[in-house]
Design a protein that fits this description.
A four-stranded mixed β-sheet has the order 1-4-7-8. With 152 residues, it is of the alpha/beta class. Helices cover 14% and strands 26% of the residues. It is built from two helices and twelve strands, in the order ββββαββββββββα.
Length: 152
């Protein structure tokens, strides 16, 4: 377990694009975006959050308690869309296998527009295709990008 998923607490002239991640088993806050100026300029899109069924804390300018997907509507500023609370049903997280299992809400929930723009820019700059997961599997598989580091 990690203490905090993303901690951006010391700069105010900053923009974050937090998309298509799985935040699971945080012992502290899932996100620490302290400055409202950063939250206002940033986006939080198509992420899956899971705290073993209990509430979690997200600081998006101010602190919020998230217990269900609808609670993300309390986050104001920037772009906040498509975030969910749900068990990622990892294949075997105890053994370090974080591939989303059958029925996982992480499957196909990712926002393609954000990552495809980044991948296209990377390919144009460096001539390398990075539209793959950690295992080298081409993304997307199925109807869309999976949230997290692995494509099912």
């Amino acid at each position: 377990a990690m203490e905090t998923g993303i901690d951006q607490s010391w700069r105010i002239d900053f923009t974050l694009h937090v998309a298509n991640n799985v935040f699971s088993a945080m012992t502290g806050s899932a996100l620490e975006i302290e400055a409202s100026e950063v939250a206002e300029a940033s986006e939080l899109v198509s992420n899956l959050f899971w705290q073993d069924g209990s509430t979690l804390t997200v600081r998006w300018g101010t602190s919020h308690t998230i217990g269900s997907s609808s609670d993300f509507s309390s986050l104001t500023g920037g772009t906040v869309a498509g975030n969910e609370v749900g068990d990622p049903l990892f294949a075997d997280d105890g053994a370090g296998d974080f591939v989303p299992g059958s029925g996982s809400p992480a499957v196909d929930m990712g926002d393609a527009s954000i990552v495809e723009a980044v991948c296209a820019d990377f390919t144009s700059r460096y001539g390398l295709d990075i539209q793959v997961d950690l295992d080298g599997v081409a993304r997307p598989q199925g109807a869309g990008w999976d949230a997290g580091p692995h494509e099912q």
